[in-house]
Amino acid sequence: MKGTISDEIEVNVPANVAWELYGTLHLSRFIVQELPTLLNKVDVLEGDGSTGTVLKITFPEGTPGIPYFKERFNIVDNEKRYKQSQVIEGGYVDLGYTFYGIRFEVNEKDENSCITKFTINYEVEDVNLANHAFTMFEPLQTVIRSAKTYLTNKTHI
């Protein structure tokens, strides 16, 4: 079974400003610092934030389910402003998913605003496991809403 889940939000900053957060390792640091209930730690295992970078994402102690996962950036396109990653170890792979990927995009609306979007794509053989894909939906909604507040406040300082 294949599935897709996505959400988007308008942000009143230029697309290049939003991409400075979403297109770099700064997004992981932002989540750990600003949303410590979502992530405890992010270790860069290889790379510099560009295509091929591998991260180890560790959840806070006591988080039910999966303690960590490793994620590889399959595509980081600074020109088109999108980043596509895939869980390669732990997390949903350990639960039985054959593919679990997340894509972040920043699309220009006009010179002073943009649309930030995330999309979760997954493949799983056991249909009952497909319900677990939704467990990352709410945290990613929290990330894009918090990022919107951060980016909006940052540009008005």
TrEMBL record:
GO terms for molecular function: abscisic acid binding; protein phosphatase inhibitor activity; signaling receptor activity. It comes from the Eukaryota. SUPFAM superfamilies: Bet v1-like. Residues 1-147 form the Bet v I/Major latex protein domain. InterPro entries: Bet_v_I/MLP, Plant_def-hormone_signal, START-like_dom_sf. One of its GO terms (cellular component) is nucleus. GO terms for biological process: abscisic acid-activated signaling pathway; defense response. Belongs to the BetVI family. This is Bet v I/Major latex protein domain-containing protein. It comes from Solanum commersonii (Commerson's wild potato).
